[in-house]
Amino acid sequence: MKAIILFLALIGLSKARPQLFRNTIQQVRFVPYPTILRNYYDLDNPRGYKYAVQTSDGFNNAVIGEIKNPGTDQESLAVEGQYSYQGPDGKMYTVHYTADENGFQPSGEHLTGSANTKRKLGIPSAALASLAGGGLG
């Protein structure tokens, strides 16, 4: 009985070892991580911050953050920036954006739909009248 268990255990171990085939070894290729070419940052400014990064794969990122209305009830952070990257089709794509009390507002030639349109602020007067009980007309 012990011999059968030992024999089955050895068969299980031999089948569990990694199976290396020549065709799978040839498919593995080394893809290097992008290196940082430029890295600038200024985080010591009490009214905001700046940073910029550029990597060897074409990625660029630049951001400026500024505190608006410091020390008041209306204090907020406003951020402007842009980033660029190379898409799978080989083209460079750039997104410019603003993020403030009105939300994140991206823009870029390749963006479609609501992501590339300016946000309309305010509520139409007819809607306000309806909420106040005046009806829509």
Automatic annotation (TrEMBL):
Residues 1-16 form the signal peptide. One of its GO terms (molecular function) is structural constituent of chitin-based larval cuticle. Coiled coil: none annotated. Keywords: Cuticle, Signal. Pfam families: Chitin_bind_4. The keyword Coiled coil does not apply. GO terms for cellular component: chitin-based extracellular matrix. This is Uncharacterized protein.
